[in-house]
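As a warm-up, study this chain.
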Amino acid sequence: MMRHLFKEFVSDIHKEAEGKSQERDENVGLAQDVKIPALQLFDELGRLFDKELKNRITNSKKTSTKQ
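Now compare it with the structure written out below.
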């Protein structure tokens, strides 16, 4: 009985280790897949921020010259 329980215990440990290894491999692939879209997102956000900043500066100059 103890031998059977020990074999099951060892088998469970191997299955858990294998599952964690696969999770790690999947997460590495996921990180690489997400990296490029994230860079594109931040690039686009930076462009939008610059555009909005320029518009606010232009608008503030227009309102100050009207007064």
